[in-house]
Amino acid sequence: MDSQDYNSNNFAMGYLDVIPAAVFVVDADVRVLNYNRASALTFALRSDTAVFKRGGEALHCIHSYETPEGCGHGTACTSCVIRNSVTAAVLSERIYRKYHRMTLVSAENNVEIDCFVTVAPITYEGAHQALLVVEDVSEIFALRRLIPICAWCKKVRDDEDYWVSVEHYLKQQQNAKITHGVCPECAEGLKKEMEELRPGWGN
């Protein structure tokens, strides 16, 4: 790389460093070629250990430890949003804010993060590369997973500040089909109630 390329590369990285989300320049195999300051802060990256490693290995994705070959070779790697998005971007497709949940291995304990993945194709010196943006939205998703429920009637407050039944809320949020049953504790209480009303019931 000559001095002009080096200076223009530094200039481009200066722009990327002001972006508050993690931005990586990766090749077709999701090998990290460069990254911005937010990436280093979010994922505790060091240039001596992250550059030229595949994304899963640089970020310590749990699936990169599944096989000796590392990132891209585990069974879960075929459905990895990051890998598939980079592959699509190298073929000139743009991916915008696709949801992905990752489990990252750390010294203390594994950490699950929710993120949005955006990828755009770029070409540098004739090589097809991709600009990969990983927005960590774990805090937002953690807040969304907190469900406000009434301590007395057990109704749930929805996003529009209405109090609705748990069944209605689940159907609204998860498009879930609700089926009813009786837990063993309630079944025992119900049996006692019925026996009080009709002695000998259930024998």
Q: Which sequence of SSEs, written as H and E, runs from N to C?
A: HEEHHHHEEEHEEHH
The tally of domains stands at: 2
What's the CATH topology name of the largest domain?
Beta-Lactamase
DSSP, total strands: 7
Using the CA coordinates, give the radius of gyration. 25 Å
CATH architecture of the largest domain: 2-Layer Sandwich
The helix tally amounts to 8
What is the 3D shape?
elongated
Oligomeric status? single chain
Beta-strand percentage range: 15-25%
User: What's the overall average pLDDT, rounded?
Assistant: 83
Largest sheet: 5 strands, antiparallel
CATH class of the largest domain: Alpha Beta
Structural class of the secondary structure composition?
A: alpha+beta
Amino- and carboxy-terminal Cα gap: 88 Å
- Say which CATH homologous superfamily of the largest domain is assigned: PAS domain
Enumerate the spans where pLDDT stays under 50 for 5 or more consecutive residues. Answer: 1-8
Helix share, percent: 25-40%
Largest beta sheet: what is the strand line-up?
Answer: 2-1-5-4-3
What descriptive keywords fit this protein?
single chain, 203 residues, alpha+beta, Beta-Lactamase, 2 domains, five-stranded antiparallel beta sheet, two-stranded antiparallel sheet, 8 helices, 35% helix, elongated, disordered N terminus
Describe how the helices and strands are arranged:
Blueprint: H1 3-17, E1 22-26, E2 32-35, H2 37-43, H3 47-50, H4 55-59, H5 81-90, E3 95-104, E4 111-124, E5 127-136, H6 138-144, E6 156-157, E7 163-164, H7 166-174, H8 184-197
Antiparallel strand pairs: 1-2, 1-5, 3-4, 4-5, 6-7
